[in-house]
Protein: Acid ceramidase
Organism: Neotoma lepida
Amino acid sequence: MEACIPLSSDTLWCLGVSPQTALERVRILVNSLKNLANAFVPSGKIMQMVDQKLPGLLGKLPAPFEEEMKGIADVTGIPLGEIISFNIFYELFTMCTSIVTEDNKGHLLHGRNMDFGIFLGWNINNNTWVVTEELKPLTVNLDFQRNNKTVFKATSFVGYVGMLTGFKPGLFSLTLNERFSLNGGYLGILEWIFGKKDAEWVGFITRSVLENSTSYEEAKNTLIKTKIMAPAYFILGGNQSGEGCVITRERKGSLDVYELDPKHGRWYVVQTNYDRWKNTLFLDDRRTPAKKCLNRTTQKNLSFATIYDVLSTKPVLNKLTVFTTLMDVTKGQYESHLRDCPDPCIGW
């Protein structure tokens, strides 16, 4: 039986499992992160600082996110600093593959693999990442409603208040991939701590766009121009021919907007975690096999099933993959699947 937990004056958690089960899973994952931190600094001082200092260092976070994180801390009994760090680490450890395609009739599909947890504990007994496996039972499909009507749908993790994957039925779809840069998210967090609070947290701006933007173009414009805390790739799909792009972002501006151009043969865009004009890391080339599979599929054969197959090809599918999401904005279809990568399978 579905039960709802109030997190703030405007937000309810309505979950497909009991509140006790969901909260216990959050506690297990946060405890794993604590254990990993303590493994690096056995004194426990890192977590002591997180518990006692982090909320004060970060100061007031934008609404409604701060209120929701306080609500999560209240209902779980986990210190607020740990809930905040649980939300921050999504800005720093996300390895993903996102695809937007257009078939020969002008119909758009958007798919993504959420890969998460690299370097966060390797289990030598079953060849898995500890945090990746603990995220799977925390994965939920969300339906955000206002006045009993769906505003947007998303796939996320219990306890995380931002959004990395979602769509607004009939309007647009949006996924977020991490971008590696020397001018990275750590610098953005430090700037925030030292009082420069003119940038948006990446997961927060993605949720804000899903909640408030009323068109593909409005969403695109916001994602191009808004200052953000960490470098990122925003992968956006619409409901009309040609409405699909990868926005490559530095923290303070856009470097590149790479768009669908089916009239000139560009009927898909693929984004992993590397700038499209640069070579991928030789140990982590998910881009090339994804493109090969799409070319083999051909434009006329695009469907949820064939996009799922592309995202199931190793190493596009790997030991970090938590879930695969498929989105059809025009038809209002949205589905997510928890994933496992059977051996032999690369770690990322």
Observations:
- The CA atoms of residues 225 and 234 lie 12 Å apart.
- The two ends are 37 Å apart (CA to CA).
- The chain has a mean pLDDT of 88.
